[in-house]
Design brief:
three-stranded antiparallel beta sheet; two-stranded antiparallel sheet
Length: 174
């Protein structure tokens, strides 16, 4: 018996499909797909959330000194003799422990990068921002599911699809 569903696709296309759907599930909270795909997505998503729950508090806070460019009231950099003027600022950053860093890299093997585009800036690069899904997993989903032992997703059947009668479902995070 096979260990996973082939979903009627070659390996590269199947991996890309599952990575994309897992990324969208974790970003949006729920997606609509077929039942076979949802069962495969569930395996991957639940393993990622389990990693996040285990490593949610495994970091150190470190204070670092950073150089930040001075800006005028228009938001432009201040220059003096053709060189940008910098200020030194103290910042507190999270430094991952080795096990959390390993978990983050395992998550990044599965998740695609997500870029959030505001509706007024549709089709433009300006105003977009990158969403760090690994941080969302550690900071939001890790504490949320800390008391649960698995079962982070729910599959709800919504009926057969009109074209090919494949059973459609909604998979969502509980």
């Amino acid at each position: 018996m096979a260990m996973y569903r082939k979903l009627g696709k070659k390996q590269a296309a199947r991996k890309a499909l599952l990575r994309n759907q897992v990324t969208q599930l974790l970003y949006n909270g729920k997606i609509k797909t077929t039942e076979a795909r949802a069962k495969e997505i569930r395996k991957i998503a639940e393993s990622l959330i389990t990693m996040a729950v285990k490593e949610k508090d495994n970091f150190d806070e470190v204070t670092v000194t950073a150089k930040v460019a001075q800006k005028d009231q228009n938001g432009k950099r201040v220059k003096k003799d053709g060189a940008t003027v910098y200020d030194e600022v103290q910042k507190t950053v999270k430094k991952d422990q080795p096990s959390r860093l390993h978990a983050r890299r395992q998550m990044l093997k599965v998740l695609y990068p997500v870029v959030e585009v505001p509706t007024e800036a549709a089709g433009k690069k300006r105003g977009t921002k990158k969403v760090d899904l690994t941080e969302k997993l550690f900071d939001e989903y890790g504490p949320k599911y800390a008391g649960r032992n698995g079962g982070y997703t729910r599959i709800v059947k919504i009926g057969p699809r009109k074209g090919d009668a494949a059973m459609e479902v909604i998979i969502e995070l509980i």
